[in-house]
Fold:
Amino acid sequence: MKKFALSLFLLTSSAFLAACGSDEPASGGGADGVEEMTIKFSHVVAENTPKHQGALAMKEYIESESGGKIEVEIYPNSSLFGDQDEYQNLVSNNVQFIAPDLTKFVGNNPQFNVPALPFMFENDEEAIAFWDGEKGQEILSSLEGDGVLGLKMWPNGGKHLTNNERPIESPDDLKGLKFRTQGGQVLEALYSELGAGSESIPFSELYTALDQGVVDGQENTFSNIESKKFDEVQKYMTVMNHTRVDYAVFTNTEFWEGMNAETKEIVEAGLEEGTKVAREEAINLNKEAYDLIKERGETEITELTPEQIEEFRTALEPIYDEFEDEIGADVYEAARAAAGQ
Structure:
């Protein structure tokens, strides 16, 4: 009996030691194969914006699902990199995710001018349909030669005009004024067509530029106008929805392709979660921001009638002919299909 008990003890002990010394995990925990890393996500807007809320959702998902092995650091308000240097730092893998305005890339590929096409999309759903579609995905992938990959479009919404000189109710009201834009051939041509000037100024410097009169006005979404308090330094705002601010999340391809399968699965799922939140918040936060601007009463608001909108639309029709060869008739066709035109 003693021999049997001793044998049983030795057998049990051997099995226990073997299990402890095994290379296989004792349980099927999902984070065991995840690589430890720190991911940096840099953007240029404030915290109370759709972009930042999407980045937060992405961070929370990735850190939770990785069991804390992956840390995601978010740098809003150009606190890490600004408009002028975030792309180069993404190319150098000094930051792993950025989410710039798509029109910032028109120098790389003129097809990124799509959000600047006047009155192309009436709402976020139409813009999302384009960028999630085949032609939109093709454009987002066009920077791979730089080691940069566009992943998901995050909408911000339609843009509206603010200025310090006069209410804008017709195309003639823009003549002689100078507006800040994100830059790009189409936006420059748009303001030129209306007899106005334009200047590209980094977003982080825009409040000061408006306050000091470097430009007369600017165009932006309600959430960007409210979160940066542009209405404090602008007397007039016209609700136009004439062009858009649409972002996309871009990553460094070396980083993206270098993750192992388990790590990449979590990061991709985190991106999907961030995309869902950013798209939902774009609608909610723009509505809330417009209400706050009206409540503050710092700026006189003009809401254009359908007839006034049509006057602007007609005045800007030549832009499409001017840029069809450069942007591509196929891109126009895909954008119009997404907009139900």
Summary: The two ends are 89 Å apart (CA to CA).
